[in-house]
Design a protein that fits this description.
Blueprint (H helix, E strand, L loop, with lengths): L9 H5 L7 E6 L37 H21 E11 L4 H10 L2 E10 L11 H5 L5 H10 L12 E9 L5 H8 L19 E3 L10 E2 L5 H6 L9 H7 L1
Parallel strand pairs: 1-2, 3-5, 5-6
Antiparallel strand pairs: 2-4, 3-4
Length: 249
């Protein structure tokens, strides 16, 4: 098997591919949660400009209506190009943050894909982005005693941001030629191989988990990326486990 790596802008490189020329597409695009744009290169990560009212916040803590609009605008032409290059009945899987997933789903559907399902990649190793009110209380024009009283009153009360425990993956399919069987006979794609299961023998599921449950058959368990995957060979900002991508393929 030969492997060809192409380093370039996705939209530019997609336009170089022929119509109906690939079997499957799996992408992990920018989530538009930090600087409201697609500038996510490692080299420029610390230098990017952001809106003044949110620039001091960490990634994942910023909320703006521009995020969803920018994400949809960014993904719409990419989804259209992916639909063009996919073979008839080919699958398109795309990672997304739960809060902006609906914008992705609209972009995918408007690109003439059929939304077949949604997968959840769940995990426990995450950090809450919720903020306490202490910093804002310190800025109030009031006495120190009143500030301390208010801090005690709001101890444990934080901004409405739950601890993230999953990412969403859209499972879309390009329109088929006739029936599923006809499409398979013509393209040899468009069906799901249920013999390719995980070691626990599960039928392919919508939940892909890093959580080790008491009942191992509850979830298809996938570990977080190893240090080798994340460090020595990969400086990508959001590394996905090789086992996860392998299973999706």
């Amino acid at each position: 098997m030969s492997i060809k790596l192409i380093n370039g802008d996705a939209l530019t490189e997609l336009k170089k591919l022929g119509d109906c020329s690939i079997d499957i597409c799996i992408i992990d695009p920018p989530y538009f949660l930090d600087t409201l744009d697609s500038n996510w290169s490692v080299e420029t990560n610390e230098k990017r400009e952001s809106n003044s009212h949110i620039k001091s916040l960490n990634c994942g803590m910023k909320f703006s209506k521009k995020q969803g609009h920018s994400f949809y605008t960014f993904m719409t032409p990419i989804c259209s190009e992916i639909n063009r290059v996919l073979k008839t009945g080919g699958f398109f899987l795309c990672f997304s943050n739960p809060r902006l997933y609906h914008h992705l789903a609209l972009a995918v559907e408007n690109a003439d894909f059929e939304l077949r399902d949604t997968l959840l990649w769940t995990y426990k190793q995450s950090q809450s982005k919720a903020m306490s009110m202490n910093t804002q209380i310190d800025r109030l024009d009031t006495t120190s005693e009143q500030k301390e009283t208010l801090k005690k009153e709001l101890d444990g009360w934080k901004t409405p941001m739950l601890k993230p425990c999953f990412e969403m993956i859209t499972l879309a399919q390009k329109s088929r030629e006739g029936t599923f069987l006809n499409n398979w006979l013509e393209q040899h794609i468009g069906l799901m191989n249920t013999n390719q299961r995980h070691e626990n023998g599960n039928f392919p599921m919508t939940i892909l988990s890093t959580v080790q449950e008491e009942n191992p058959l509850t979830y298809f368990s996938i570990k977080k990326p190893s240090k080798k995957e994340k460090g020595e060979y990969n400086n990508h900002l959001t590394v996905k486990p090789v086992e996860l991508i392998t299973h999706l393929i």
